[in-house]
Input
Amino acid sequence: MAGQGNSRSEGVDQGRRAMLTGTVRGACAVGMMGALVAFPSRRQSVLPALRPPGAMAEKDFLSACVRCGLCVRDCPYGTLKLSDLGDGPVPGTPFFNARTVPCEMCETIPCVAACPTGALDKGLSDIKNAKMGVAVLVGHESCLNWLGLRCDVCYRVCPRIGEAITLEVSHNERTAKHARFIPTVHSAKCTGCGKCEKACVLDEAAIKVLPHALATGLLGKHYRLGWEEKARAGHSLVEESPEMPVRGMEGVEKTPSGTYKLDRTPSGGFKEFKP
Amino acid sequence: MSPRQGITDPGAASVAARGWLAANKWLLARRLAQLFFVGIFVTGPLFGVWIAKGNLASSLTLGVLPLTDPLMLLQSLAAGHVMTGTAILGAALVMVAYALVGGRVYCSWVCPVNAVTDLAHWLRGRLGIQKGLALNHNTRFWLLGGVLVASAATGTIAWEVINPVTMLHRGLVTGGILTLGSATLVTAAVFLFDLGIASRGWCTHLCPVGAFYALVGSRSLLRVSAVNRIACNDCMDCFTVCPERHVIAPALRGAAKGVGPLILSRDCTNCGRCIDVCSKTVFRFDTRFHSDPAGTKSARSETKAA
Output
């Protein structure tokens, strides 16, 4: 087989071919190894993880966190844990379970100070600006305040009482004479520390901290809220609607906000309504 | 002593000639070092005496010395993240240290997986398992390339999903090894792979962390030297115990080709086991500057000069 044709050019040709096949085989090997290694890292965690304060967005977090556990070691309350199989988050990364041990919101933020890689952002200087998640009152059918009682525990333990959680008063339809004090979370103020979830007196917490995107939803980027645009511009951006007469209301006096002033009759109807 | 005896019990001749302690000196030192690099991380959680915090991925020793695995930094960079100064400084310190003492000193003196795969290899010999999957010891370098490609493609530190080195060390320093978690499972997988599937399969053929450190230390100062190679009686004990046996021959048998006695391969882990098992005291630790082949065989230097 060997020795056919011009031996010199064949030698050069074979050398070139060997180099070419070597390069192709090398590239194949790197590509195959890369694909195999990428396989598990593309898996999304099933359970949403609550990350330490200052954590980068989840996608970026996995490019920066080396899973050294220094944040866990410097957490004085044992809040942070390194994940392992079955915990939900990618194994080795720090997380916390608010119902087990919530974040105590240390003023010095030792976990962020300990992070060597920048996975926890050193730019977080005030723990009140942390965005570990947002509390959501998920149990509208089990929350004691929703049932008309005055539990208020989540409201009272909130480190930002009156700001992150307020009690909004509404009418209790069941008794028809009491008020309900509905715990209401304000996402701009809530740090996601989880003290409310920890303190909830129910067997399963009615208020839970969820990762931000899950908790708040997101408006389409093209949405413009008319009233905000109006306030910003100082006037309506579209022509005001022309005033249309309402049949049967001719001559009835109006309030400054544009509704009609109606008088009740003893029978329960309105004087101005004519059947 | 028959060659057969040497293979089943390498080091027996060395024990007979030099005593048990001298014939196991470096092995003992290595096991102590491996214990040390776990121990300094667990005195804190166990006894409240904090020496080192973190793990082999990144750590802080005595509150002042930051160390970071440079391969993590590289993968993170490939994934599009530039780490903070602490991690960059830590990685630089690690690189300098291993560039001096030999990159794969990490493998044989620090990495906890070494004890696992050594145990598998020892048991393999005891059970008489000889056949196995034949792997190329350069596969690890391809895997290292693949790890960086995967990091860039996924935007994550890709190898950390399965890295037995950091998983085992993390499991040891956090106590996770006591549960049926990732540390236990991945360590069991590596052990069984080395025991039943491929002889010295993981550390010698596949581990990309070892491959990376081999590259870091490819010009290192500290080397094993077959300085007294003229005394070699071809008992093959060093080849039997060496986890990277291709590194020995060029130095041990290079006199005829005018090659110096230093083991210069980047794959050598500086484990020193060859020094232990040699009954003729052929090997010793040396620096790469003592590479003159003339000192060991004057006849060779004349041939070379001619």
The helical segments of chain A are 7-41, 58-64, 70-74, 110-114, 153-157, 195-199, 212-216, 226-233.
